[in-house]
Specification:
The protein has 258 residues and is of the alpha/beta class. 42% of the residues lie in helices and 17% in strands. The protein has a single domain, classed as Alpha-Beta Barrel (TIM Barrel). Helix 2 (26-40) crosses helix 11 (237-257) and helix 8 runs parallel beside helix 9. It is globular. Bound molecules: the ligand O=c1ccn([C@@H]2O[C@H](COP(=O)(O)O)[C@@H](O)[C@H]2O)c(=O)[nH]1. Ligand LLZGTKA7 binds at residues 18, 20, 50, 80, 133-134, 175, 177, 199-200, 202-204, 226-230.
Length: 258
Amino acid sequence: MQKLSTRVQASNSLLCVGLDPTGADEAAVEQRLQAVIAETAPYAAAFKPNLAFFLSRENGVALLQQTVRSIPRDIPVILDGKFGDIANTAEHYARFVYDVIGADAVTVNPYMGDDAIRPFARPGKLVFALAKTSNHPFHNLQDVELASGGTISALAARVARALDEELTESTIALVVGATNPAALAQVRAACPAQWFLVPGIGAQGGDLAATLQAGLRADGSGVLINASRSIWQAADAGAAARELMEQINQLRPAVILN
Ligand SMILES: O=c1ccn([C@@H]2O[C@H](COP(=O)(O)O)[C@@H](O)[C@H]2O)c(=O)[nH]1
């Protein structure tokens, strides 16, 4: 949390650069990863490698380790693995994330409950739990009905009541998609202080202005706007990252003033 806040202030950025490496030529992928990291680092509040894009390669774990080591140490790394299993298994996933890979933060799937999350809540680490995802599932497993009518993300409602003394706002952050600003606003209303990782801008078509309006905290911070494909596939990754960071920063004061 401290590392994230410090980096957000130092870089004046709320941009999370997603690393979802695609391409068949291993050497070219390695080179592209190094180039994207070097070119986008000045504009990145955080990097988010997605585990699936590394595990689908023969040398995936080594490539992920090398990738994380290439990221400047003052920029937080969120390993997007969406882990979720019983506690003793989750303990092994946590060792992988923090001790083998060296990430600062992780995404978890909270479906199996608090004990599936707790092993990831180490001192100095931040856990992003999926609260309202950016896809549009036909079921509403993620939501609970409110007595007052309507629905809200079940996890957001639970986090608002505090999960327990270990899983507090300093260790638990939320993943909330950019594709449903009304739902994002509800989650923000329930969890005014939490950090949100917000995927869905760029390739998934989320509306940036509406997302910031709905998701920013009262202090104009508290969201990490993720973009993966729109940066990885850009002819100039640095320019794509800078442009998105500047768009975010142009919209932030307007939101704070409203
Ligand atoms: O609800 C969610 C949770 C995670 N993701 C991940 O974020 C990136 C989005 O990539 P784009 O190319 O910018 O669409 C990707 O790694 C997803 O697995 C998400 O999209 N939605």
